[in-house]
Specification:
This protein has about 200 residues and is of the alpha/beta class. It has one domain: YjeF N-terminal domain (Rossmann fold), CATH 3.40.50.10260. It has helices spanning about 25-40, 55-70, 80-85, 110-115, 175-180, and strands at about 20-25, 45-50, 75, 90-95, 125, 145-150, 165-170, 195. The protein has an 8-stranded mixed beta sheet with strand order 3-2-1-4-5-6-7-8, sandwiched between helices. Helix 4 (about 110-115) links the parallel strand 4 (about 90-95) and strand 5. The chain is globular. The two termini are about 15 Å apart. It comes from Mionectes macconnelli. Pfam families: YjeF_N.
């Protein structure tokens, strides 16, 4: 499945492809919860770190769905980076995203980003790498190996230097495509994700 190609499969040599999904408190965190659920469906072994849970009922529903799928939730993120490198094959960055405004300076996001900057395993960022400005691009943020742009690439994607860039935007309504003058790529067959 092409959806799985959004994750660095060659770097998942172990028998159990373990993925740590790090979720922030806003919309990107909810997307991370949905991502974890999909990973589980495709036989990955996701673990979620979601320290600041949103009171939004939809986000609570996503959390419940993950719990009912027996996806474990970490109570804390190890600050010893080697523990993360040894336990997981990849990290999904769903901490801040495009809606972040200075969120990287507030806890728990600042501590999470400080840890993610030092890990050695591949990072897959959802929409906008955490710590990046959605318009101007990188600042003191992380350097992901894979970027999955949601709906359409943001301006900051021009500064992405990682291995793979995917866009997941097949189901954007035509009026939205027209309004924002988007030129979506061709999605082959029934694929929901396409490599750029």
């Amino acid at each position: 499945s092409r959806v799985l190609q959004a994750f660095p499969l060659p770097s998942l040599p172990r028998k159990q492809p373990t993925v740590l999904v790090v979720c922030g408190p806003a919309q990107n965190g909810a997307i991370g919860l949905v991502c974890a659920r999909h990973l589980r469906i495709f036989d990955y072994e996701p673990t979620i770190f979601y320290p600041k849970r949103s009171p939004d009922p939809l986000f609570r529903d996503f959390t419940t769905q993950c719990e009912k799928m027996d996806i474990p939730f970490l109570s804390y993120l190890p600050t010893e980076v080697q523990l993360i490198n040894d336990a997981y094959n990849a990290v999904v960055d769903a901490v801040l995203g495009a809606e972040a405004e200075g969120g990287e300076g507030r806890e728990p996001c600042a501590a999470i980003l400080a840890t993610l900057k030092h890990i050695r395993i591949p990072i897959v960022s959802l929409d906008v790498p955490s710590g990046w400005d959605a318009e101007s691009g990188g600042s003191g943020g992380i350097s992901p190996d894979v970027l999955v742009s949601l709906a359409a690439p943001k301006e900051c994607a021009r500064r992405f230097l990682g291995r793979q860039h995917f866009v997941a935007g097949r189901f954007l309504p035509y009026d939205v495509q027209k309004k924002f003058e988007l030129n979506p790529p061709e999605y082959p067959g029934t694929e929901c994700v396409v490599a750029l």
